[in-house]
Amino acid sequence: MIRIKICCICSVAEAEIAVRHGTSAVGLVSEMPSGPGVIPETLIREIADSIPPPVATVLLTSLVSSADIVAQQKRCRANTLQLCDRVDRSVYASLREALPGISLVQVVHVTGEESVPEALEVAPLVDALLLDSGNQSLAIPELGGTGRTHDWALSARIVSRSSAPVFLAGGLNAENVGEAIRTVRPFGVDVCSGVRTATELDEQKVENFVNRVRAAAQ
Questions:
Q1: Would 203 be classed as within a structural domain?
Q2: CATH (domain of 29)
């Protein structure tokens, strides 16, 4: 089974759509330097509290200090942390100690060959990797939500060698997700703009996306 995460959830009603269609996780975006879907921490907490288990509530954070990340998780109460920027290796151990039971997902922005060793080095330290299409090196860092695909051949190499499960993100939609799954063979897929019309979560697009993922998984 391919896990499906719907990101940039902006309301309890959107979360209900995601859950109703059998998604495994919902992404809740806190303050970012750029990109869509940012909502206040009070709303993140409200949505996270509304999600029934076993659906994962994923807090997307751009923070890099372990103390800041811990404080944010305690305010928001999501059960998974998605670290959208690079962090010092010591941060993972600090988060494990301070937040037992909270899953850690590290985003790796696939920009070129250098992304392969970066992903493989961090994989043993986290519960999952998420391969996205951002770029931390820009003047205004892109930490996700670009709507662009990246080189899936690089992602496939990471998946084949990673010690952690890998989610694929970046420009996915109902039209290309089947090819993405066949090429990369990820543990899961992550979608934001590909299931929206304008800024609104589109239930028909969610249904189409989920159906295409399930068909590809078979």
A1: no
A2: 3.20.20.70
C-beta separation of 26 from 54 below 8 A:
no
pLDDT digits (tens, 9 = 90+) for 74-114: 999 999 999 999 999 999 999 999 999 999 999 999 999 99
- Find where tokens 């993405």 sit: 180
DSSP string across the chain:
--EEEE----SHHHHHHHHHTT-SEEEEE---SS-S-B--HHHHHHHHHHPPTTSEEEEEE----HHHHHHHHHHH--SEEEE-S---HHHHHHHHHHSTT-EEEEEEE--STTHHHHHHHHGGGSSEEEEE--BTTSSS-B-S-------HHHHHHHHHH-SS-EEE-SS--TTTHHHHHHHH--SEEEESGGGEETTEE-HHHHHHHHHHHHHHH-
Domain count, the chain: 1
pTM of the model: 0.96
187 residue type, one letter: F
